[in-house]
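Write out this protein's structure.
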Amino acid sequence: MPSAQTREGLADKVYQAVKQSIFDFQLLPGERFSENTLAQQLNVSRTPVRQALFHLEREGYVEVLFRSGWQVKALDFDYYDELYDLRIVLECEAVRRLCALSLAERRVALAAQQRFWIDSAPSTLGASVAKEDEAFHRALVAATNNRQFLQLHSDITEKMRRVRRLDFTQQHRLHATYQQHQAILHALYAQRCEEALRLLTLHISESKAAVRTITLLRLQQARETAQAAHPRESPSRART
């Protein structure tokens, strides 16, 4: 019988695999699936599959259907828009508090962001930029030294990751992120608080619009691929 540690490891493996399939649109919004199917595909028992799915359900990626297995949750853009708006409010308050610090304190709080976004050439364009982008925005909030702010921001970031990471799949959006982060940092170092607030609001708003466009495009491409591979299947598997 597998140990508790082994079971937890298997559940985490399933969790990561299913989550990545959702992120990559291999499991489409609205698509139904069973625990048995996943267990067979991942070569594990149903127990770690069920544990992983309940974890994903708590995070809002899947939902259980009464006597009908599981389903990938549909993309609710109104929900994501609200999260983007909440980010603007929270991060703008963080910037106001950053501006109340001395320039020396500001530079210490943002030292890692200075090194990545300004001192280093933008040579690394890809998945690592998504992580560094999250670190940039987290650093703004962390500088407030308010643990509740930071926890709320972390929760929002996790909920948005399903779509927000797509903002870093196109070169022009990667370059825009570099330029906008640099501009925000320069404004903060120059003690131009209102400019930093304006730039930050514009940056997040542009990301919100771009993510919706990119997500819809990726979803359309995934549907077309799925229909080409399984032309006789019901179109309901690609429902949003």
